[in-house]
Amino acid sequence: xxxxxxxxxxxxxxxxxxxxxxxxxxxxxxxxxxxxxxxxxxxxxxxxxxxxxxxxxxxxxxxxxxxxxxxxxxxxxxxxxxxxxxxxxxxxxxxxxxxxxxxxxxxxxxxxxxxxxxxxxxxxxxxxxxxxxxxxxxxxxxxxxxxxxxxxxxxxxxxxxxxxxxxxxxxxxxxxxxxxxxxxxxxxxxxxxxxxxxxxxxxxxxxxxxxxxxxxxxxxxxxxxxxxxxxxxxxxxxxxxxxxxxxxxxxxxxxxxxxxxxxxxxxxxx
Amino acid sequence: xxxxxxxxxxxxxxxxxxxxxxxxxxxxxxxxxxxxxxxxxxxxxxxxxxxxxxxxxxxxxxxxxxxxxxxxxxxxxxxxxxxxxxxxxxxxxxxxxxxxxxxxxxxxxxxxxxxxxxxxxxxxxxxxxxxxxxxxxxxxxxxxxxxxxxxxxxxxxxxxxxxxxxxxxxxxxxxxxxxxxxxxxxxxxxxxxxxxxxxxxxxxxxxxxxxxxxxxxxxxxxxxxxxxxxxxxxxxxxxxxxxxxxxxxxxxxxxxxxxxxxxxxxxxxxxxxxxxxxxxxxxxxxxxxxxxxxxxxxxxxxxxxxxxxxxxxxxxxxxxxxxxxxxxxxxxxxxxxxxxxxxxxxxxxxxxxxxxxxxxxxxxxxxxxxxxxxxxxxxxxxxxxxxxxxxxxxxxxxxxxxxxxxxxxxxxxxxxxxxxx
Lengths: 270, 421
Hints:
The complex is a heterodimer of chains A (270) and B (421). Chain A is α/β, with parallel strands linked by helices and 270 residues long. Helices cover 40% and strands 21% of the residues of chain A. Chain A has two domains: 25-106 and 234-265, D-Maltodextrin-Binding Protein, domain 2 (3-Layer(aba) Sandwich), CATH 3.40.190.10; 110-229, 3-Layer(aba) Sandwich (D-Maltodextrin-Binding Protein, domain 2). Chain A is globular and about 75 Å long. Chain B starts with a helix and ends with a strand. Chain B is 14% helix and 47% strand. Chain B has 421 residues and is mostly beta strands. In chain B, helix 1 packs antiparallel against helix 2 (33-58). The chains are: A alpha/beta (270), B mainly beta (421).
């Protein structure tokens, strides 16, 4: 029987060596689309000073990134929302770990309006009524008599989940809400649609008007001090406490140099 | 959105193509911007309808897994050497489709419909058939109705995820097929605790595939499980603790029984009479420790004790006090390799000495299992697992021969390929 065991043992040993070899100094980052530009900037800046490290960044949404972390196909998961208990449970079952949560920047979810829209302030309740389909005309919130066209993210987006939980109070989005695959697509749609409204990361708000929420501007100060009502942390999640090149990269992100990139991209340092 | 974009581009292309043709046909039918706008709006409405339909389909989910394995036993008597192994094959090696599951679920957020079947044993077997509702106000309470897992840690721990090839002996004995037909309330207020309260048809040992109450059982049995998770993030440590119980009776259909401190042959026909309720009650404690140590590790364990009863050959009821436990260590070597070791013990009769046992059903058995798992390929887990069971020796002479003079040679090697989607 021992002889018959040799083949499977050799096969498994070969896989072990192969996988150990493949894991050297290559870092993969996957997840939040809100954070993808920020993460790419971090990677580019870090790799320019550390030529031995290769960092690959992809988006796909926070949910996609968390799934990849659980499946073992990414080293770092970017997420614009905290992990759910059900997701932590899966990580525990597969890796025996609770995961490591690292807040790495702050963001204010900005409400985008077309530049010619006369509305410039919405309350949290009005936002809820708009996105759940109870307010359907700009006239109902002080604008002109036109139908409101809602743009949102897809349900694998952390921003989608955060907005649903914190603005809609857990209620479903109106069926007429148009789900777009990325924040850039939301900004682009609103910039071309005078009746459009969208939401997303502060760093993307180019070519659109940023709407006040409860009378508070989404400025650096207001988001940084939490006065702006839709402020949130952006996270990186790891399976285990980092070591080696992964730890050095994380430490650099949290250093003044890494946090400077946060400001450059349009988000807010810790 | 990709669908929407593609369809929009397609429709616009068709419109533009038609407009070009119209233009080519002559100048007699100029198309106004308003007309084009109207058509585009019409297309937009159609696409919005399609998006709504696709969103509905997204709620429908199909998942499954299949376990194909090669098993090799050391016993010259084949897989039937172990007294607990119902398989009486004389072969020493075999390929086997251990599990082949497909699960259909419709998840509408606060309600779910789940249907799961197993095709592995040359027949179709129903595994899950339940509906689940969550209260829309607090979202703390949910109700599950149908055929579903009983509330116990290892029962609920999916076979596709579990590191040992099979469940522990005590769990497999107490919860055959893992599921039963009934209903369960789950109360889970945020992260405070989780309480499961369930009642099931008392299927006892009847044909479990039918999930009907057994003729000699009380109508229902009840289960409860309470769990609480603790986390110390700074230490990378998580500890989950829990207790569970099962309460229910079996109704005696005979006056003959043997109690826990009697051998099976010592039948008592006076203490108990037909129609009496015999308790089948037990209590369990569980702990799971997760530690982010050099790539992550976990230790899982349960201890269960109580009173059980079964019907022996249809004429004698065997009432037994039992205990059982398992401890499993799982350590990640890299993100793709994992080592696991498990010790499990089941003593079906804690009150009788081995020398007095006259029925193999009363023999205690402990098993050491060791194995490694590989996750290098998407969806695929390759496992190599070695089980070393040790059965209690009984020199009690039955017809001049010891019941079990030596531990059977029944170590088992399993090479399993699991595909999960």
